[in-house]
Amino acid sequence: MSVNANGNITGHHFAVGPPQIDMSKYRYVYKGPDIFPPVPEVDGFIPPPTSIAAAHNHFWIDTEYITIPKAIQWDIYPQPSRRAQPGGQGSYLARLPPGYEEGNERYPILIWLHGGMQTQRDAIWALQYYGRKMEEGKMPKTIIVAPQALPKGRYIDNFDGTRPIATILSHDLIKALDQKYRTIRHRSARWIEGFSMGGYGTLHLGFTYPEIFSALSSIAPACLPHITDEMPPVVADTYGTNADFYDVTHPYHLVGANISQIKASGTKVRVLTGSLDIRLTAAIDRLMKRFDQVGLQYQHRESEGAAHVYPHILAGAGSWVTEWWAEVAKNIVRPEFEN
């Protein structure tokens, strides 16, 4: 979906793989208490033109900054992990907590991951939502950062090493943010939230690097079980045609392979879904059964009447959206050198 400067959603760019589903009949109108930004009404999906889809896995930097709301910053950071492309950089948007400029307090970081066929600007609604909740005292004061990641990259290190997105976000980005902002430099203060492909990426990063990230908020994770469930143009740059690579990088596999480290580190996990997100219902159920099988502690909430639309799912979850983060924040450890 594209979000303009006023936070209004104008469409969702989403490549729907087989089977094709007519989502236009699923229209969600939020009828709860007023929230900011306003919860949009959305009809179906808008697939991107083929020419744009083909170029998506070269979008390391989103150059649009003029229309970004004033409370949100645009910046770039070095990506030395892109060894095949020396001097590579990536962009991100950041929402600083209220009072950041006036004091010297250190804050946790929440990395917000956009969905497939999207850009960092698709995080604007989330940045505005959490920004308002911080102003209202309902969300822990947090530095929220939405990196531009390759719109078809799945937040993993791809099959041939040319797009090491997981390494970039877990190492290059974290290092850059620690240098630029007053962060709490401890895993207990590094959190991730993502929607759709970003929900998948949240789990992939968190299960791969439990020593770096402590809290994972996965919203409608696009966790289809087989490479053949996705359209070839969506997965070619990331997986090639390697079904085994698709499987071993999937959160379904990673949670089992790394469960000892995940449990030992006390990683907090939640999954938020919509009752009308019919393309992903079976896949998410399968993933949560895997969580149960390996003994992962997690929480799940389903928003009644919500389809595959981030604001609708959050609106349906109500106050628990931020109450969960408040519980996560109770576990923050402040390194001695910061005191």
Q: Would you give an account of this structure?
A:
The structure is a single chain. The longest helix has 16 residues, at 165-180. Helix 7 (251-257) packs parallel to helix 9 (281-294). This protein has 339 residues and is α/β, with parallel strands linked by helices. The chain has a single domain (11-333), classed as Rossmann fold. Mean pLDDT is 87; it is low at 1-21. The chain is built from 11 helices and 12 strands. It has helices at residues 50-55, 124-135, 165-180, 197-208, 232-239, 243-248, 251-257, 259-265, 281-294, 310-317, 320-329; strands at 2-3, 9-11, 27-28, 42-43, 72-78, 89-95, 109-113, 143-147, 190-195, 215-219, 268-274, 299-303. The chain starts with a strand and ends in a 10-residue tail after the last helix. It holds the Pfam family Esterase. InterPro entries: AB_hydrolase_fold, Esterase-like, Mycobacterial_A85_antigen.
Inertia-based shape? globular
Strand order of the biggest β-sheet: 5-6-8-7-9-10-11-12
Secondary-structure element series: EEEEHEEEHEHEHEHHHHEHEHH
| Portion in helices | 25-40%
Count of strand segments = 12
Largest sheet geometry:
8 strands, mixed
CATH architecture classification name: 3-Layer(aba) Sandwich
Query: What's the level 1 CATH class?
Result: Alpha Beta
Strand content: 15-25%
Report the average pLDDT across residues.
87
Uncertain regions: pLDDT < 50 for 5+ in a row?
Answer: 1-21
The CATH topology is given as Rossmann fold
Give the number of domains: 1
Number of helices: 11
* Termini gap: 42 Å
Structural class comes to alpha/beta
Q: Could you tell me the radius of gyration in angstroms? A: 18 Å
CATH superfamily: Alpha/Beta hydrolase fold, catalytic domain
InterPro entries: AB_hydrolase_fold (IPR029058), Esterase-like (IPR000801), Mycobacterial_A85_antigen (IPR050583)
